Amino acid sequence: MKFIKSVFKTMKDTTWPTKKEAVSDTATVISTAVMFAVFFAIVDFLVQWAVGLIA
């Protein structure tokens, strides 16, 4: 029974982000993922170009 009471207490203490916070956090995650994708695409292109010069 202690576990069940603890779960209910934890659920009461849990706070969810507001819609504004959720949208902001989602935009941050998406923009960061896009920036990393572009960065790695550029690095990949440069490495392929450099290997092409060597070979």
UniProtKB/TrEMBL annotation:
GO terms for biological process: intracellular protein transport; protein secretion; protein targeting. It is found in: Membrane. It comes from the Bacteria. InterPro entries: SecE_bac, SecE_sf, Translocase_SecE/Sec61-g. GO terms for molecular function: protein transmembrane transporter activity. The keyword Cell inner membrane does not apply. This is Protein translocase subunit SecE. The lineage of its organism: Bacteria, Bacillati, Bacillota, Bacilli, Lactobacillales.
